[in-house]
Hints:
The chain is α/β, with parallel strands linked by helices. It folds into two domains: 3-81, no CATH class; 88-359, Alpha-Beta Barrel (TIM Barrel), CATH 3.20.20. The protein has twelve helices and 13 strands. The protein has helices at 3-13, 52-55, 121-124, 135-140, 150-164, 183-196, 214-221, 235-241, 250-264, 281-294, 319-335, 347-350, and strands at 16-17, 35-40, 43-48, 59-63, 69-73, 76-81, 105-107, 111-115, 168-172, 201-205, 225-227, 269-275, 296-302. The strands form three sheets. It has a seven-stranded mixed sheet. Strand 7 (105-107) and strand 8 form a beta hairpin. It starts with a helix and ends in a 10-residue tail after the last helix. The model is unreliable at 26-30 (pLDDT under 50).
Amino acid sequence: MNKKQILLELQSFGARLDVPVEEHGRCGGAGPSDDKAFMLDGVAAMVPTLGDFAQESPYAVISGDDGKYSITSNGRNVMPVEFVSTPKFYGLKTKNGIPYRQIAVLHGLDVLATTVSQRCIRWRREGERCHFCAIENSLESGATISLKTPEQLAEVAEAAVRLDGVKHMIMTTGTMNYHDMGVNYLIDCTRAIKAIVPDLGIQVQFEPPENLEDMELLYEAGAEAVGIHLESFSQDTRERITPGKAKISIERYFEAFKKAVDIFGRNQVSTYIIVGFGDSEESIVEGCRQIAELGVYPFVVPLRPLMGTPLENVSAPDPQFMERIYRRVAKNNREYDLAYRKSKAGCARCGACSGITAFE
Length: 360
């Protein structure tokens, strides 16, 4: 079994944690997720570990007599694994007593990640909630706070860079309103962070704002990259899975992509494309080709069924299906001179939630 196959199967099937590894980082990705960062040959990969499907996975993490961890498949040792140690900044609090880890978290190996607003207007409106999302569940569990201020984010970012060598930062958010979608608040956050840690690369993620010129102000504030997440190229799928976001047409997303590339440059704009909603291989690959032609990096990921969401019992996509898509999308990316290594900050540069980096 080769390492690519192991990676793809881990990201689709998940893995059981048969030994305690709580002292090594956390479970959960940049947004609300059930993943944990696995270090596979020095490369970070986010692997589901909490959902019911992960408990039925053939993969498990065990510990040897020497204290080192290994991954097994059906009881057979397949490769060693390491976990990122809990970062030093997790031990700090703001002057108001808020733990830094409730403001931002370490994601992957060297990424600081935060959900700026843990509340989402679409989550609260009847018939608008994205079916794969668990954004407010994290808030209800007490793992985070509702709204992070620019000052809090700057304080945590400075500590994460100084104490733990964080290289770049992702700011995602629940949609804050139906107009600028929260972009102007994200501008304030970006400006505050850059004033304290000017060399920290920042990616900001949001829905297309009414005024696309708002993205110019985000660039002027210091953001290096943006994520504008379409999730699916099928309007039928969007209306079924992301009914609120589907009110913004695919055509409008493409307008936002073009404007963002004009502002931030090729390879500095990305979009999440989630495989596992029932979309065909051809529609996914062709859609990814179209946005790659525009200069947008298609960040393709398998569906991760999260506990507490309408899709929690849906099966993740087959690893072989993912491999075919990754190979074809990576080929198109090369033709349009796109690569995760060329991204200055954010999900594409990190790559831990996807397997596509293994094929570039």
